[in-house]
Amino acid sequence: MGRVTATERRAVLLAGAGLALAAGCANRNAVAHPGHSSGSAPARPALSGNLPAQLTHGPRDRPRVALTFHGGGDPGTARAVLAEAEKHGARLTVLAVGTWLDAHPDLARRIRDGGHDLGNHTLRHLDINAMSEAEARAEIAGCAERLERLTGSVGSWFRPSRSPTASPLVTRLAQEAGYPHVLSYDVDSLDFTSPGAAAVARKVLAEIREGSVVSLHFGYDDTVAALPVVLEELDRRGLAAVTTTELFS
Ligand SMILES: [Zn+2]
């Protein structure tokens, strides 16, 4: 195979993003996966030992990455992202906002049925590190209660709202609620700033490497459009997009 110049690479990214934009629009009204109830609660993840309470990335010596999503916003973008990931054999991690689950309860099962990780991103997505202990506890518990009711499990992961990292207090509260590890990230796609699909893909692909945990968001068209470009390039680099549970197992 010949070498691909930076200009050619950029052209491919832009072309891919354009195609994906059209696909994203087409998928916007896709119906939700019917979702069968399997009943049994998932097993706790078998994590490798001695992990810190707050995780920013997985092992750097294995060709695996985790694409993690803020579970909020337009459910059409969520369904489009999930369908695209599944087309590529990729598995995602969705950190769901509790009020988003109230508005779209079917998505909890949709995510789990697709083989993705589902976790807790607080009840209302407020600045949890600035809250009192009682308020922060209620934010974590409120989302955990919804996850448990909808899927039979509080999920494996907690991510704080409005901050990449959790304060020591919030970390302790998350652990008390059943989340041994707070999930941060080492690659920020900045997709929530709507910089254009090509910019989202470029930033992720410039920074992602073995073990990376990437922060992405449902609710933004740029993310939907960038995802096929990112997944194709990950394939080319031999990096598998796996659940966070798998990344750390
Ligand atoms: Zn968020």
From TrEMBL:
NodB homology domain: from which residue to which, for each copy?
Answer: 63-242
- Tell me the leader sequence span: 1-22
Keyword Methyltransferase among UniProt keywords? no
| GO biological process entries | carbohydrate metabolic process
Gene3D superfamilies to which the protein is assigned, alphabetical = Glycoside hydrolase/deacetylase (3.20.20.370)
Chain intervals for the UniProt region annotation (Disordered) = 31-60
Which CDD domains does the record match to this protein?
CE4_NodB_like_6s_7s
- Keyword Signal present in the record's keywords: the answer is yes
What Pfam families would the database entry show? Answer: Polysacc_deac_1 (PF01522)
Supply the SUPFAM superfamilies for this chain: Glycoside hydrolase/deacetylase
**Superkingdom:** Bacteria
Under the heading PANTHER family, the entry gives:
4-DEOXY-4-FORMAMIDO-L-ARABINOSE-PHOSPHOUNDECAPRENOL DEFORMYLASE ARND-RELATED (PTHR10587:SF137), GLYCOSYL TRANSFERASE-RELATED (PTHR10587)
UniProt name for this protein: Polysaccharide deacetylase
**Lineage, uppermost ranks:** Bacteria, Bacillati, Actinomycetota, Actinomycetes, Kitasatosporales
